[in-house]
Design brief:
Order of helices and strands: EHEHEHEHEEEHEHHHHEHEEEEEEH
Strand content: 15-25%
Radius of gyration: 21 Å
Helix content: 25-40%
CATH topology of the largest domain: Spore Coat Polysaccharide Biosynthesis Protein SpsA, Chain A
Number of domains: 2
Number of strands: 15
CATH superfamily of the largest domain: Spore Coat Polysaccharide Biosynthesis Protein SpsA, Chain A
Largest sheet: 5 strands, mixed, barrel
């Protein structure tokens, strides 16, 4: 089975640590390795390196080669423009031979935290078996929600519709909602049948090609043109033109919310999307405890995250609660922990004001 690892995002909700020049997937948040390196290493015990592919923006190809130096260069897929997951998957499909279109493959992010690697590997293999036996289904993985996160998709599982595979239960999906508002997320948290969408999907290329044709038809036409041009002298120019004009639409909104045969494998492996500063704090410390990295002085402060990428500046806090302080050489971010999902809006404002040095 082939694995497509998506590593082209900017991780704007972790700004200013995650920057355009070195976004979240290339940061060392939990160990001496970057999130991308951790993603590769947790797959290697069960997948040979030659079966792993990394899709990334062309400006990050050099960084990927540096971090995963033994990855075959042909396994790095350079995206000429920033687009959403549908476009990245389409570009990967152009690499495959038609005889491979009935073989399951997995798509997963490069910038998530997973604590139980062995259990995760077994779940991936169970998912591969399920899709091989049920090629009309898209399989996703779901984690039990622990707080009302509005930055994630939620899955409502139906009754078990399939036999267990390697001790993993697989359910039909009754309902899928991408990034609900806080009130709705709170109601989902109280219902044991709702799961967080982990952003990991297993399906056959043949099924996905048809889904793109049905739900994102303009992207499908451009995918066909790129596929037809592969191996020809004009390939680079066709790729740049057609990929740049693909719809920048979410995979979850365009396909997962519309396709009728979705299954979910609930999985408890200590997963997090590390999607905001508050989520990062929850990964690094106990509730209501401080997490400090860097040069810090504090008195009577509770539930504070101070994350310094440099020891040059002293961060002093006094009598504060529920605060995020992120420090880099040129930026200091201060926000309430309940507002950290909105950090992306600061990045958008910087872009609007053309303050590109801070992106």
């Amino acid at each position: 089975m082939k694995v497509l690892i998506l590593a082209g995002g900017q991780g704007t909700r972790l700004w200013p640590l995650s920057r355009k020049i070195k976004p979240k997937q290339f940061q060392k948040l939990f160990s001496s390795k970057t999130l991308l390196q951790e993603s590769i290493e947790r797959l290697l015990p069960v997948f040979p390196l030659k079966s792993l592919f990394i899709s990334t923006n062309e400006e990050y190809v050099k960084e990927v080669k540096f971090e995963i130096s033994n990855l075959p260069p042909k396994n790095i897929i350079a995206e000429p423009e920033r687009r959403e997951r549908v476009a990245a998957i389409s570009l990967f499909l152009t690499r495959l031979k038609k005889k491979e279109f009935n073989q399951p493959f997995v798509v997963l992010p490069s910038d998530h935290l997973i604590k139980e690697n062995e259990k995760f590997q077994k779940a991936i293999l169970a998912g591969e078996k399920f899709v091989a036996e049920n090629p009309q289904y898209i399989l996703t993985f779901g984690a039990k929600p622990i707080f009302p996160d509005t930055g994630l998709g939620y899955i409502k599982r139906g009754k078990p519709a399939f036999s267990e595979i390697n001790n993993f239960k697989i359910y039909k999906v009754a309902f899928f909602k991408e990034k609900p508002n806080l009130k709705r997320a709170q109601s989902y948290l109280k219902n044991k049948n709702y799961l967080w969408n982990m952003g990991i999907f297993i399906f056959t290329p043949g099924l996905m090609e048809k889904a793109i044709k049905d739900f994102v038809p303009d992207t499908y036409k451009r995918y066909e043109r790129i596929r037809e041009a592969r191996g020809k002298p004009n390939f680079k120019s066709v790729l740049k033109k057609e990929y740049g004009e693909m719809d920048s639409v979410s995979f979850d909104y365009s396909i997962i919310e519309n396709y009728s045969k979705i299954a979910v494998l609930p999985l408890d492996v200590g997963w997090s999307d590390v999607g905001s500063w508050t989520v990062l704090k929850n990964c690094l410390s106990s509730p209501n405890k401080n997490f400090i990295k860097g040069n810090y002085l504090g008195i009577d402060s509770k539930n504070v995250l101070v994350y310094g990428s440099t020891n040059k500046q002293l961060v002093a806090v006094l009598g504060v609660r529920d605060l995020i302080v992120a420090v880099t050489d040129d930026i200091i971010l201060i926000c309430n922990k309940d507002e950290s999902q909105k950090v992306k809006k600061l990045v958008e404002k910087l872009e609007k004001n053309k303050k590109f040095d801070y992106l």
